[in-house]
Design brief:
five-stranded parallel beta sheet, Protein-Tyrosine Phosphatase, Chain A, 523 residues, 12 strands, 3 domains, alpha/beta
């Protein structure tokens, strides 16, 4: 260990932070914040609860869906409206349910992360403007028809009027006027980017009767329980942004029964640095046991849970790499919760669905006969004829006929900047040989969110024309691939695979492949 006399203030603060950021402190903090999320969700039970990946996924036992709004898109002087993260399913869901709640947190002592302060407000404003432009291009006939169906109330007519559609930028009060002005200068350009991306604005326009608008709720927000407004009473579709973090300080000493612990704001962030292989789904399945184990036994309890889950997955033929966990001894006193508190915790966790899964869907990409999903679900899917697996390790799917199964060991661009590029020719050739026989193809990877999405992007660009018809690549050889066209196809995929999160490095490899680049150009 480094001599304390040689530590500067920065290194000393980092050392203290590492000591305080123990596994038990993080999980106990997540549990405490999840109580707040549950209370807010009960105020508007009709609104679906969404987790903003990945941090928000820790803060509730059950979410209706997930979304992916990055804080970096809202950082000062780095504002962005990214067409590869349109989250159109959030707008459609909000239109169907009358609004939605999005859960996230932040470590930095702020009340809200930048994803909620600026990224989502920019997103709602750009969508509102695109919808307004679409309605104006369609003329007032569609609006008149809606007025006739909604003429039972005068208020309904005013909401349906395109001219009353709110296209202004709604930001929280703590965003400066200077920053607001700089963001507003870019809104028209972002709206054009959305309109030319190929996104299905028409479906969103039909789904939303009122414009989207963000509202911010934190642990310091005052809500009078006898005056909770009804969502239908608002003249907008609410996107409730629920920040779980307690903003008073990063670390707070708290006491629970026989032991004390430190509260960590935004504990769910950067899970690789503290979770030791534990996932949100696995945590909530065993939350009572983990929380009641105390600081000293928490690491061992989590290690046992992870190992049992690994063995269970391995017995089912799933990819279950062994995780080495280094135990650490907490300096705090140990102890178990008293019987009264144990019963209270147990009653809250007894309804957890033991069969729930983080990835439980296979997404068919329109009428292309191509689907994308996780490897875990691939072997149980009966509606596919052939499987293209992008996992590093082969699995039980290899028992399929060789012509109907291909395993490509593709790793993330973080570890190999040309792994995807090297394997795309084999992937596209396999897809071509099977699709021309009229077979249904499933492309899968461990997460179903990144590598498999990019492989599907390469397949659709290489083997399908602009109208989405399979032509074995004839139209591809006659045109020059542009980044705009690549973004349009990616938007098409994301309309169906709502959990898609392709990394920039992998998308670049797809573009290099389509534009004739080789391995050297991508490295």
């Amino acid at each position: 260990m480094e001599n304390p006399a040689n530590l500067n203030i920065y290194k000393a603060s980092r050392t203290i932070k590492r000591r305080e950021n123990t596994l038990f402190n993080a999980l106990r903090s997540i549990y405490e914040d999840s109580i707040f999320v549950g209370e807010i969700s009960q105020l508007w039970p009709e609104l679906p609860l969404l987790a903003n990946l990945r941090c928000g996924l820790w803060y509730s036992q059950k979410f209706h869906s997930t979304c992916y709004f990055k804080s970096t898109d809202g950082h000062t002087n780095n504002w962005s409206f990214n067409t590869s993260r349109l989250n159109l399913h959030v707008a459609l869901l909000a239109g169907q349910k009358g609004g939605c709640m999005i859960v996230d947190s932040t470590r930095k002592g702020k009340r809200f992360p930048d994803s909620m302060s600026k990224t989502i407000p920019i997103w709602t404003c750009v969508l509102n403007r695109a919808i307004w432009n679409y309605r104006m291009r369609c003329g007032l006939a569609g609006t008149a028809e809606k007025k006739e169906t909604n003429n039972s109330t005068e208020r309904g007519d005013s909401i349906s009027d395109s001219y009353s559609w709110d296209c202004s930028l709604h930001l929280p009060l703590w965003v400066s006027n200077t920053e607001r002005a700089l963001i507003e200068e870019r809104l028209d350009g972002w709206t054009k980017d959305l309109e030319v991306s190929g996104a299905d604005i028409a479906s969103i326009a039909l789904s939303l009767n009122k414009p989207l608008r963000p509202l911010w709720i934190s642990q310091k927000t005052v809500i009078w329980l006898n005056e909770v407004p009804d969502c239908d009473s608002w003249d907008f579709t609410p996107i409730l942004l629920v920040s779980t973090s307690s903003p008073s300080s990063n670390f707070q000493q708290r006491t629970a029964s026989e032991f004390s612990w430190r509260y960590i704001a935004g504990a769910g962030d950067d899970e690789e640095s503290w979770a030791r292989g534990l996932s949100p789904n696995l945590f909530w399945k065993h939350a009572y046991d983990v929380i009641s184990s105390g600081p000293d036994m928490c690491n061992k309890k989590v290690a046992d849970i992870i190992e049992k889950d690994r063995v269970y997955r391995a017995q089912r033929g799933e990819n279950a790499p062994q995780i080495s966990i280094k135990p650490s001894k907490s300096s705090t006193s140990s102890g178990r919760l008293p019987a009264e508190e144990q019963l209270d915790l147990e009653s809250q966790f007894m309804n957890i669905d033991e069969k729930s899964s983080d990835n439980n869907s296979i997404f068919w990409l329109g009428e292309s006969n191509v689907a994308v999903g996780t490897t875990q679900l691939a072997k149980d899917e009966s509606g596919v004829d052939c499987v293209l697996s992008c996992d590093q390790e082969s699995n039980s799917l290899c028992s399929k006929e060789s012509e109907a199964y291909l395993n490509l060991s593709i790793v993330s661009s973080k570890f190999d900047r040309s792994s995807l590029l090297r394997n795309l020719p084999s992937a596209v050739n396999f897809a071509k040989n099977n699709l021309k026989k009229g077979q249904k193809l499933l492309v899968c990877c461990s997460s179903g969110e990144d590598i498999s999405i990019c492989v599907c992007l390469a397949i659709l660009m290489s083997l399908f024309d602009d109208r989405g018809h399979f032509d074995e690549g004839r139209s591809f050889t006659e045109r020059r691939v542009t980044k705009l066209e690549l973004r349009r196809r990616l938007v098409f995929i994301c309309q169906f695979a709502v959990n898609a999160r392709p990394s920039r490095g992998n998308v670049k490899q797809v573009f290099n492949y389509l534009s004739g680049g080789n391995v050297e150009t991508a490295s």
